[in-house]
Protein backbone atom coordinates (compact mmCIF):
# COMPACT_ATOMS: atom_id res chain seq x y z
CA UNK A 1 0.00 0.00 0.00
CA UNK A 2 1.41 3.39 -1.00
CA UNK A 3 0.58 6.83 0.26
CA UNK A 4 1.16 9.94 -1.81
CA UNK A 5 1.21 13.50 -0.49
CA UNK A 6 1.40 16.50 -2.81
CA UNK A 7 2.54 19.99 -1.93
CA UNK A 8 3.50 23.20 -3.66
CA UNK A 9 0.25 24.39 -5.18
CA UNK A 10 -0.93 27.96 -4.92
CA UNK A 11 -1.93 31.13 -6.70
CA UNK A 12 0.35 32.56 -9.37
CA UNK A 13 0.05 35.12 -12.14
CA UNK A 14 0.12 34.10 -15.76
CA UNK A 15 3.69 33.64 -16.92
CA UNK A 16 4.84 32.61 -13.47
CA UNK A 17 6.20 29.34 -12.14
CA UNK A 18 5.39 26.77 -9.49
CA UNK A 19 6.98 23.51 -8.43
CA UNK A 20 4.82 20.69 -7.18
CA UNK A 21 6.24 17.92 -5.02
CA UNK A 22 4.91 14.46 -4.29
CA UNK A 23 6.20 12.29 -1.48
CA UNK A 24 5.59 8.56 -1.81
CA UNK A 25 5.70 6.26 1.19
CA UNK A 26 4.72 2.74 2.10
CA UNK A 27 6.08 -0.62 3.07
CA UNK A 28 7.84 -2.57 0.32
CA UNK A 29 6.98 0.18 -2.14
CA UNK A 30 6.93 -0.98 -5.74
CA UNK A 31 7.09 1.72 -8.38
CA UNK A 32 7.05 1.33 -12.14
CA UNK A 33 6.19 4.93 -12.89
CA UNK A 34 4.82 8.09 -11.33
CA UNK A 35 2.78 10.76 -12.94
CA UNK A 36 0.90 13.99 -12.58
CA UNK A 37 -2.71 14.47 -13.59
CA UNK A 38 -5.01 17.46 -13.29
CA UNK A 39 -8.71 18.16 -13.16
CA UNK A 40 -10.23 21.54 -13.87
CA UNK A 41 -13.78 22.41 -12.76
CA UNK A 42 -16.34 20.74 -14.98
CA UNK A 43 -13.72 18.77 -16.89
CA UNK A 44 -12.42 15.23 -16.92
CA UNK A 45 -9.16 14.40 -15.18
CA UNK A 46 -6.31 14.48 -17.70
CA UNK A 47 -2.76 13.23 -17.89
CA UNK A 48 -0.09 15.92 -17.55
CA UNK A 49 3.28 14.16 -17.26
CA UNK A 50 4.74 10.76 -16.45
CA UNK A 51 8.12 9.34 -15.52
CA UNK A 52 9.38 5.75 -15.56
CA UNK A 53 10.98 5.33 -12.18
CA UNK A 54 14.00 3.19 -12.99
CA UNK A 55 14.87 4.40 -16.48
CA UNK A 56 13.83 8.00 -16.12
CA UNK A 57 11.92 8.18 -19.40
CA UNK A 58 9.33 10.95 -19.46
CA UNK A 59 6.16 11.78 -21.34
CA UNK A 60 4.03 14.91 -21.46
CA UNK A 61 0.65 16.08 -22.60
CA UNK A 62 0.94 18.26 -25.69
CA UNK A 63 -0.55 21.18 -23.80
CA UNK A 64 2.38 21.33 -21.36
CA UNK A 65 5.34 20.27 -23.51
CA UNK A 66 8.18 22.74 -23.27
CA UNK A 67 6.70 24.39 -20.17
CA UNK A 68 6.49 21.61 -17.57
CA UNK A 69 9.23 19.23 -16.43
CA UNK A 70 8.77 16.09 -14.36
CA UNK A 71 11.71 14.81 -12.32
CA UNK A 72 12.45 12.52 -9.41
CA UNK A 73 14.68 11.99 -6.41
CA UNK A 74 14.88 8.24 -6.15
CA UNK A 75 16.53 8.14 -2.73
CA UNK A 76 13.73 10.24 -1.26
CA UNK A 77 10.91 8.61 -3.25
CA UNK A 78 9.83 12.05 -4.44
CA UNK A 79 8.62 13.28 -7.77
CA UNK A 80 8.38 16.89 -8.86
CA UNK A 81 6.56 18.90 -11.48
CA UNK A 82 8.26 22.15 -12.43
CA UNK A 83 5.68 24.35 -14.13
CA UNK A 84 6.89 27.41 -16.04
CA UNK A 85 5.12 29.94 -18.24
CA UNK A 86 1.86 29.13 -16.53
CA UNK A 87 -1.40 30.01 -18.25
CA UNK A 88 -4.89 30.53 -16.83
CA UNK A 89 -5.94 27.28 -18.53
CA UNK A 90 -3.46 25.41 -16.31
CA UNK A 91 -5.73 26.14 -13.35
CA UNK A 92 -6.79 22.82 -11.85
CA UNK A 93 -6.35 20.44 -8.97
CA UNK A 94 -3.15 18.54 -9.62
CA UNK A 95 -2.84 14.92 -8.52
CA UNK A 96 0.21 12.76 -8.10
CA UNK A 97 -0.22 9.10 -9.05
CA UNK A 98 1.83 5.94 -8.76
CA UNK A 99 1.79 2.99 -11.12
CA UNK A 100 3.19 -0.05 -9.34
CA UNK A 101 3.34 -2.39 -12.34
CA UNK A 102 3.72 -1.70 -16.03
CA UNK A 103 0.74 -3.85 -16.98
CA UNK A 104 -1.68 -2.04 -14.68
CA UNK A 105 -3.21 1.39 -14.40
CA UNK A 106 -2.12 3.99 -11.89
CA UNK A 107 -2.94 2.34 -8.57
CA UNK A 108 -2.44 5.05 -6.00
CA UNK A 109 -3.41 8.70 -5.90
CA UNK A 110 -2.67 11.68 -3.73
CA UNK A 111 -5.27 14.04 -2.34
CA UNK A 112 -4.50 16.77 -4.85
CA UNK A 113 -3.16 20.29 -4.65
CA UNK A 114 -4.83 23.36 -6.12
CA UNK A 115 -3.04 25.43 -8.74
CA UNK A 116 -4.68 28.71 -9.72
CA UNK A 117 -3.24 30.91 -12.46
CA UNK A 118 -4.63 34.41 -12.69
CA UNK A 119 -4.66 36.41 -15.91
Which key terms come to mind for this protein?
single chain, 119 residues, mainly beta, 11 strands, 0% helix, globular
Structure, explained:
There is one protein chain. The chain is mainly β and 119 residues long. The chain is 0% helix and 52% strand. The protein has no helices and eleven strands. The protein has strands at residues 3-7, 10-13, 18-25, 33-39, 46-52, 58-60, 68-73, 78-83, 92-99, 108-109, 113-118. The strands form two sheets. Strands 2, 4, 5, 6, 9, 10 and 11 form a seven-stranded mixed beta sheet that branches. A four-stranded antiparallel beta sheet has the order 1-3-8-7, with no helix packed on it. A hairpin with a 4-residue loop joins β7 (68-73) and β8 (78-83). The chain is globular. The model has no long low-confidence stretch (mean pLDDT 95).
Through-space gap between termini: 40 Å
Q: Which H/E pattern describes the elements?
A: EEEEEEEEEEE
Mean pLDDT over the full residue set: 95
**Structure summary, number of beta strands:** 11
Fraction in beta strands:
over 45%
Largest sheet: 7 strands, mixed
**What is the CA-based Rg, rounded?**
14 Å
The class by helix and strand makeup works out as mainly beta
How would you describe the shape?
globular
Q: Would you identify the regions where 5 or more consecutive residues have pLDDT less than 50?
A: none
Helix count? 0
- What portion of residues is helical? under 10%
Amino acid sequence: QAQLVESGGGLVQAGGSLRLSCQASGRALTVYSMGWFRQAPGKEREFVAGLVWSGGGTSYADSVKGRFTISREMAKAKVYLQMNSLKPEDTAVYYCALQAWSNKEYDYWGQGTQVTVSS
